[in-house]
Amino acid sequence: MSLLFSYSLSLFFFFFFFFLNLHALRASPDTGILSSEHTNHHFTLHGTRRYVYFTGKPRWVRPMTPMTLTYAFSPDNMINSLSLSDIRQVFKRAFARWASVIPVSFAESEDYGFADIRIGFYSGDHGDGEPFDGVLGILAHSFSPESGRLHLDAAETWAVDFGMEKSPVAVDLESVATHEIGHLLGLGHSLVKEAIMYPNLKPRDKKVDLQRDDIEGVQALYGSNPNYTVGDLSESYISTNLAVDFRTSRQSKWANFILALIIICLCICN
Ligand SMILES: *[C@@H]1O[C@H](CO)[C@@H](O)[C@H](O)[C@H]1NC(C)=O
Ligand SMILES: [Zn+2]
Ligand SMILES: [Zn+2]
User: Where are the transmembrane segments (predicted)?
Assistant: First the structure.
């Protein structure tokens, strides 16, 4: 066998294993917040920004600044496993995180019919063409502005405190609420793994802090809250970026190592 032939054979095996590897990643159990908006967004990939909007960049528009959006819980579509006051606290914190970076405030309303944002828990097919799928899989979905519908899958084991809720399939309500509010405001799914708007969340994971990508995305739609300064970006943003770079370089070294290994193997066979 010529050296050229064994080199192309190595390349073939490398790509074979590479695709095998890719497939395995995709086939891993998907427990994410996979929203129905997948087909409805385009990528905004200039510079380092990885956030995404819905087609046409819809956003909420109100004459007053800062604008106030009201939200209400469906009186008929709540769950019994959590108290209403726990659920209200969770959403209050989730809304406050977004409100701290844009000139938009959120107020809970008793008037479900007239609220801008309407929140409820639903099972299976619930009349909007996006049926829920039982435990895990799709956890929640929400619609682009100014629809205001935020639906959570009633079949999930929703948790506000993993110390109290021991189920291995428990899902953190606050993490999902924060993600879904991003959709309500007009953000699609981000490609940045650490971002709140990344489409996957593992059971028993808590991910509630807005990352730089989320903040830049939502501020490009609504502007910045005058009370918000970039200095508020915590240390975690810096370490997160470092971690990403570290992982990327490790991965490519790993790939090179496999390629080297295959070449070495074939050479020994010859
Ligand atoms: C900024 O902070 C002040 C004082 O807490 C508050 O009255 C105001 O509404 C805040 N502005 C926005 C846009 O949230
Ligand atoms: Zn989503
Ligand atoms: Zn729905």
Answer: none
